Amino acid sequence: MTLPPVTDTASYLARHLGPDSAEEQVMLNRLGYSSINEFVDAAIPADIRVPSTPEVGEALSETEAQAVLRSYAEKNVVLKAFYGQGYSDTITPPVIRRGVVEDPGWYTAYTPYQPEISQGRLEALLNFQTMISELTGLPVANASLLDEASAVAESIGLMSRAKKKGRRVILDARLHPQVLAVASERARAIDLEVEITSLTENLVGEDLCGVVIAYPGTEGDITDPRGVIEAIHSRGGLATVVTDPLALFLIESPGELGADITVGNSQRFGVPLFYGGPHAAFMAVTDALKRQMPGRLVGVSVDADGTPAYRLALQTREQHIRREKATSNICTAQALLAVTASMYAVYHGPAGLKLIAERIHGLATDFAATLRSGGVEVVHEGFFDTVAVRVKGGAQASVDKLAEAGYLVRPIDGNTVGVSFGESATKDDVAKLAAAFSTAAPSEGSSAIPKALVRTTETLTHPIFDSIHSETQMMRYLRTLSDKDLALDRTMIPLGSCTMKLNPTAGMETITWPEFANIHPFAPDDQARGWIELIEELEGWLASVTGYAKVSVQPNAGSQGELAGLLAIRRYHVSNNDLDRDICLVPASAHGTNAASATLAKLRVVVVATAEDGSINLDDLDAKLEKYGRNVAAIMITYPSTHGVFEDTVRTVCEKVHAIGGQVYIDGANMNALTGLAQPGAFGGDVSHLNLHKTFTIPHGGGGPGVGPVAVAEHLVPFLPTNPLATDPSQPATTGTGVPISSSKFGSAGVLPISWGYIAMMGSEGLARASANAILGANYLAAELTDSFPVLYTGAHGLVAHECILDLRELTAQSGVTAADVAKRLIDYGFHAPTLAFPVSGTLMVEPTESEDLAELDRFIEAMRGVRAEIQEIIDGRIDYQSSVLHNAPFNAFSVSNDKWDYAFTREQAAWPVPGQRRVKYFPPVRRLDEAFGDRNFVCSCPPPEAFDIHDTEEN
Question: pTM, whole model, 2 decimals?
Fold first, then answer.
């Protein structure tokens, strides 16, 4: 296969690739190759190369791609969404849509592992946590989960861990159908017995770890959960309450009612329907459960000057660190959507949000009153926004009649229609909806909130929720926060394994088109034809580039794709009556989520050692296969390896595992080195997950959204994720089928046009070109930096894959300077740090991607060489480590401009270490954080404003 030159400089491919043809040749010359084809032939093992590029069609221009996307969008039928079932009509304030969702300062940011350069998004996420904590009445909330159904599943796992002896969980039959479907199968996967029942205070049976209660129920009904909560507590179990955050302005908080855990979905706080996602789910818990809670948690600490600063708290819970001891595999959550929801709350404030809730409730009660006056039965007396209407035998006819009138409502069953009111509903809508059921004149209703459950506790009392009233203030607040951060719109983010590449604007701007954004996930297929055709085409393209038979985009994060793939393998073995295969071999170099996902799929993890060259140790693999052969379900391989090497033994590994009856899972996180050049499904894989937020350009969004499609070979196709609404959750899934993974059939469909646009605009040859240039960029950096920081692992011809590991351990031994010191010092040079201490402690893993031009690569090289010179000053004894610029980095504007300066180095060396920064300089808002302080003094909601008064900095 020959890669043609990039000749059309106006093509999307030329815009996506950082280096132009002249810069590419400079890089090739540095490496000793005359052409990109000669280089790729040397870098990638010949036995895994594809003979020709996998077919995804000819490349389209940006204009052409948007025209096709527009044609898909126009095939969707946008009705006024009164469907409910966990997804509500909402209005995204334009200042938030434009200032967050469509702003690269927010959507190109990475997960805030480096807190000093993430203070803006950390503050926004802390606002989200504070909002959820105050609404739910529980003291600790996380910074988002993936969706409501999987959040309920996570809460069940949490209850099971906290109450280790309990092996039964009771699920309220009033939960949404998709929640029951996902949560029941996830519970069964960890060997919990599931009972779905109409809850009463007389809980039956023993061995209970907990109960999950709907508040309100799927038909909109509100019942008092206190009796059930008291009953489960008396039996030693825990209570999870699933709730609607907008309803909590009118109904009492779950915490006040005795709940231990509260989960739900924040979608109706300004996040479009998006045909199912992405939406930020949430979890809040009692203080006793905080250290077992899944997901990320933002906390408050102090920096080197004693100034309060934000960071990810309790980081030992991060699942890539805990590996096989993990309690959750969540790595990507929904940060961008959590920011959107939190800003919606900040913008409207508690009074505005309560007004929205009261207005929605008022319209729902007027609708119910009008129906009752016309003799139509309203099923429930107590409700918030959803009215269940009894129409014996006529539910579908009513639904069809309303569809003709422009309304999407829910057929709950053959005799019942659900009508759920959202933010844009009007009195005119009430009249038209009521007219479909009754000829009665409009009536005014009274409150349908049960008196015993009317909210009396205050909420959203922190000043942040009552300080921004105008669009001007919101615009400036968003700008102030984003200015604090380093995102891809400012600088290269050289994170190994995370692929921070260009996110195409031509794809990004389509996701908020109303014809895409305003489609309900449970709309009938004939109203979502455009979505379905787009998704089918994208799944076909992904199957083509991976070499697998079929792909499902349902998993809404890479972690969920891993879980879906491993559950497919497990269920495949069970369907073959191969019940003893419960071991998953995981190389020591694998991504940490691999082991976590295996654990959640109820597979035992056995680690395979790494050879000196960074590859899988074949002798150790043979020993493990000899010992566990008949029990091996699968091996999980990351390829290229997490060590940044194209292992030439990958086919051998696959053959050895297949020979003993195991399956091969190839982690697709590093597909940016393979797409168009090699196919995991062709060189030995049975299943892979992909990261659309890495290789296929969905932005990271500060820690999500992500999409993690799962791709499988023909024999595993029956075990792909199933539609959550097409299963009977009361019974275990039938042997020989898959299980649902997320709340909606297509997961986070709302962001799929981005990946569709990227593939369409790149075309078959463009995808291969992107991979080749990603490998070229990594090797150029490795060659330029290896004299300063040795490259730990290389493959054939001394080349790396799309990333390389820089080894600092010897330098640390000589100078005391750690990899963390280098990461902090790079901030002063204007860079986000590479991946720190993974997969090898004491190292930095660098991935430049294909999107960075030669000048940016050279700027990074200059920075790293500057840091190396600063290390040498310590080694040579010219300055001691404690007094060095490295140990004290980073430096904010105040620290280098105030009158106090007690350091042995100059202000210029601290803040402007290279001349180019004199014109363009990023200052972090805070100094180096005290990580230990934040865990010893745990705070996970917004501190009062006076905590940030820095008048006493000098004393600190």
Answer: 0.96
